[in-house]
Specification:
By secondary structure, the protein is an alpha+beta fold. It contains six helices and eleven strands. Helix content is 41%, strand content 28%.
Length: 266
């Protein structure tokens, strides 16, 4: 039942699909590491939650039983950690970190064990800009991950995922209202999207169901690629219109059809 509720929520939570999560492989490529922050824009002096997922690149599923360390530095000086070698059985961890200064911070994740076996150390480093509030993967491996859509269509190179990224980067990020809307919903989106994505990877039937459920929404979002938005009011207008269109497709139309069927049977 809860999975059905999540499916119903997907069309309503239109913009959270664009929330940013960054992913990069370790230096030896054994695992992918994805990272995001909550809140999306860390507040100086407040605790920020670093959400880290370890992903098996062969299966694109969460990798369980990983031994890891995390260090956060600024200008080469540790501001957090390194924590002692820690084991995660779930393959996903949340670490509270307090950023006390603006500027560039390095988040380094070291992996030293996998499935209860010691492995040669592997490392990946991300850059967090406090003040600009953006995480960057090393070199050109920055990935704005649409988690649910990527899991549904199997790859970030799928046209549907590229559509989401283009709308996000070329339309929404060009307005303050679009950026603010996504920031407000990021925490909610990432509270359930990793679970949905894992279920998609584990169940082909659920994966196809999600794919089918979000396809109409993708069609409505494609409208934004064919309009010229020159003001905040236009962005708000198109955003509200698309949300109402999705509500109509996913809720109003089915309700009318069900009502007609019931009337016909009587």
């Amino acid at each position: 039942m809860k999975y059905f509720v999540v499916l119903l929520m997907l069309p309503v939570l239109v913009l959270p699909v664009f929330a940013d999560q960054f992913q990069a492989p370790t230096d030896k490529g054994t695992l992918l590491v994805s990272i995001s922050t909550e809140p999306t824009k860390p507040v100086l002096g407040d605790l920020t939650k670093l959400k880290i997922n370890f992903i098996n690149p062969k299966t694109n599923a969460i990798q369980e039983h990983v031994d890891y360390k995390v260090t956060v530095t600024k200008d080469g000086t540790p501001v957090f950690g390194p924590i002692p070698l820690t084991h995660t059985s779930e393959g996903a961890v949340t670490i509270p970190v307090e950023f006390k200064e603006n500027g560039e911070h390095k988040i380094t994740v070291d992996i030293e064990g996998l499935l209860f076996q010691q492995i040669p150390p592997e490392t990946v480093t991300f850059t967090e800009m406090i003040g600009d509030a953006s995480i960057q993967a090393p070199s050109d491996k920055k990935v704005g991950s649409c988690i649910i859509a990527t899991a549904a269509f199997g790859t970030e190179l799928a046209p549907q995922v590229q559509l989401l990224r283009e709308v996000r980067d070329n339309v929404l990020f060009n307005t303050n209202s679009g950026t603010s809307f996504m920031s407000a919903f990021n925490a909610l989106y990432y509270s359930f999207s990793p679970t949905v994505a894992d279920l998609e990877r584990q169940s082909p039937i659920f994966k196809e169901t999600v794919k089918l459920s979000i396809t109409p929404m993708l069609s409505t979002l494609s409208i934004l690629n064919y309009v010229h938005i020159n003001s905040e009011s236009e962005m708000l207008g198109y955003g509200v219109a698309i949300i109402l269109l999705n509500v109509g497709m996913y809720f109003v139309a089915p309700a009318i059809i069900i009502s007609k069927i019931r009337s016909f049977r009587k």
